[in-house]
Specification:
The chain is of the alpha+beta class and 159 residues long. It is built from five helices and seven strands. Helices cover 30% and strands 31% of the residues. 42% of the residues are buried. The protein binds magnesium ion. Magnesium ion binds next to strand 1 and helix 1.
Amino acid sequence: MNLRIGNGYDIHQLVSDRPLILGGVQIPHELGLLGHSDADVLTHSLMDAILGALNLGDIGHYFPPSDPQWKGADSLMLLSKVNELIQSRGWRINNLDSVIVAERPKIKPHIPAMRDRLAKVLQLDPDCISIKATTNEKLGPTGREEGIAAYAVALLIQG
Ligand code: MG
């Protein structure tokens, strides 16, 4: 059995007048994430973990912020492209694990919806997608609510 593991990290700044989208789900909050795309920090960290597992670089290489075609891009669409890329190389996702670091809002109630959305895009059982959430105990940029961060690990299997 051929296995590869990858990890991903991302952080985006919280600002007013932007929607908060995590795992493809819009979450009611007075602040949203700033970015060239929809700034879905969870999905970005998952994509980097998947790419990292096959040593394929990072999302900045495939979807550069300098390219106007990715402005406001739906990160789930980018995720499906990353999934196609690894499948074209003969690999598939075995499972994903992730952590969202956010002081506010409460993330936990939205996790089942995020897992369902990601599972649909990746054509995986939601059981293969773990999403956890933590605060940063008011420490650092995430703790001060200046941004939201996400960490992810992907295990890929050949065949
Ligand atoms: Mg990002």
